[in-house]
Amino acid sequence: MMGASDGIGTSKFLHMLVLPPVDYESSVIDVDGEGDREGDDGVVAVDSNALSILQQLESILPDPIEDEEAYKSAWDVVIDLYGRESVRVREEALQRERESSGSGNSDGVCHAENLQWRTLCAIGRVLIHFDFLTKGVLKEGTFR
Hints:
Helix 3 (68-82) packs across helix 4 (84-100). The chain has helices at 12-18, 48-59, 68-82, 84-100, 112-129, 132-135, and strands at residues 43-45, 109-111. Strands 1-2 form a two-stranded antiparallel sheet. 51% of the residues lie in helices and 4% in strands.
């Protein structure tokens, strides 16, 4: 039987990239997804400039109605990376937070996990949609 580490060889650098060390003793697994939401645990204040940049990134992503194919293909890659159930649970948590705070995070306060998920998804989908993963960031005059 092969383990996950068998397929990546013996390089310690590769192991750190693919299989980062995890502190299982301090990890808390929240089965219901509601855990400490009643308290203020995990709630962080967000810098308005950072939130503005995140909103600008989200605004350049394809619209689900106008460009449905591009919208779905970017989410398909995110689903392949994180798993369908994980994406569903995280998006539901983000939706609950948006509904509880009204029309978004106008007060600049949100749960750290939701902010991290929202940021990772936005950046990942921008990289996928604009094909930065294969082409990279091109400099002006590259093809002259």
